[in-house]
Amino acid sequence: MKKTNVARILDQHHIEYKLFNYEVDESDLSAETVAKKIGQPVESVFKTLAILGDKTNTIVAIVPGNAEVDLKVLAALSTNKKCAMVPMKDVQVLTGYIRGGVSPLGMKKKYPTFIDKSAFIFNKIYFSAGVRGTQIEISPTDLKKLIDPVIGKLTI
To answer: Which residues fall within 8 angstroms of residue 132, CB to CB, at 6 or more apart?
Structure first.
């Protein structure tokens, strides 16, 4: 199994993790499909979303795969009046990752990060390891130590 930059970051911090590889279907990059392919409940598979705030510019939201980010709630938590998804064409420029491979670890810059509180009901959560076709399993408390996120209810 090939290590990703995300795995290397976790190794540097001596954080325990597992990698899960799966076959990518470019026409369906949904969290539901990824969850099925790695054999995990969709609510434990988290999406990492790049968001634009009208005051703060780029921020990151980490939400469960079976939910949608509530942009109004995220705006209030992040001291913005409005938030919107980063246009797909700008995701790689801002994060260094392509759609379906965005990870909260190892982005080009350290952006303010927000994570849905539901992550902490699980012993382990899953998110992209930085490439399509690889998910990482990690304790949410270990992720919290690395990214120092704001925790809140971010979903509709």
So the answer is: 24, 26, 29, 98, 100, 101
